[in-house]
UniProtKB/TrEMBL annotation:
PROSITE patterns: HTH_LYSR. Belongs to the LysR transcriptional regulatory family. Residues 8-60 form the HTH lysR-type domain. Pfam families: HTH_1, LysR_substrate. This is LysR family transcriptional regulator. The keyword DNA-binding applies. PANTHER family: HTH-TYPE TRANSCRIPTIONAL REGULATOR YBHD, NITROGEN ASSIMILATION TRANSCRIPTIONAL ACTIVATOR-RELATED. One of its GO terms (cellular component) is cytosol. Gene3D superfamilies: Periplasmic binding protein-like II, Winged helix-like DNA-binding domain superfamily/Winged helix DNA-binding domain. GO terms for molecular function: DNA binding; DNA-binding transcription factor activity. Keywords: DNA-binding, Transcription, Transcription regulation.
Amino acid sequence: MQPFSRFLVYFLAVARHKSIRKAAEELRIAGSAINRHILLGEKQLQTPLFERLPSGMRLTAAGELLYGCARRWGKDLDDLNRQIDDLKGIRRGQVDLLAPEALSRTFLPELVNRMKHSHPGVILDMNIRDNRQICPTLLSGEGDLALVLDPEETRDLVIIRRMSFPLGFACRPDHALARHGAVTLAQCATYPMIAPEQPLALAAMFTCLMEAGRIVPAVAARANNVQMIISLVTTGIGICFLSSLDVMSEVARGDLAFVPLVGTDMPHLTLALVHDRTRQLSRLTHLVGTLMGDIMARHAI
C-alpha cells in the first residue's frame, strides 16, 4: 500500500535523482505527469520547491524542508509497520544495518546466515558506509542499527555492545615475524611495509606510532583500501599495520598471520553496536541486535 499522495511520491523521486527524466524512468511514469504534479504542489504551497537548472532540478530551501519531513514520515511509517508486525509475531520484516567495510567479510555474513536459518522471512539490508558517515547517517533516520569503529561518545547513541581489537602487523605465515607471539615497533621497523593512507582511520595512528618511536618505515607501497593492503601482503610485498579485525578471515584460513604490537599505551581499535537513542526499537530490531551482540561476544578477546 502506498500511503503517500502521488505528488509526494513524485517529489521524493525528483529530489533523489535531481532530474524529472530519471524520476520518470524509476517510477515508469511520463515525465510530463510528474512535472504537472510538482507544479500543482508548488502552486498549493505557494512557493517553488525546485530550481530548474540546465543541469537538472535542485531543491530550494522550502524543498529541502519538505524533503526532510517526507523522509521522516517514511521512516515513521516503517516503524509503525514493524510494530504492527510485532503484534503478529516475527515472521517477516526488514532491518537496516549500517557498517564499515571492515565487517563485510567477517561478522556480517555470519549474522545474515543465522537470521536466514532462524527467521527466513526477515530481510537484512546491509549498508556499507565510510566509517565517518555511519553515525550521522544513523541519526538522520537511514538505519536501525549501526556498527561503528572508534565511535565518538555522544548522548544521541545507545551502545548495545562494545569490543576491542589489538593493533599489530599482518604478514605471510612463512614470514620471520609470524614466529613471535607479540612484537615491538622496533622489531618490525626493518621489514618492508605497506603503509595505510587516508581515509583509513589507521593511517593517522600509523604515522603517530612511527613518529613517537622515531622510526622511518621502509615503505614498499601505500594504499587507502584494506583489501588492497591485504592483497599486497599476501603476494609478499611486505608487512602491514592493521587491526586483528581486518585480517580475521585470512588468519582463520591460514593465509596470513597476525602479530599484535606490545608497548606502553598501545592503542586498540574499538567496535561498537549502537542505535539512535531517540528511536524505539522494534522487536525484530532487538532480535537482530541481540544476535549481533552474541557474535561480537564470541569473537571477543
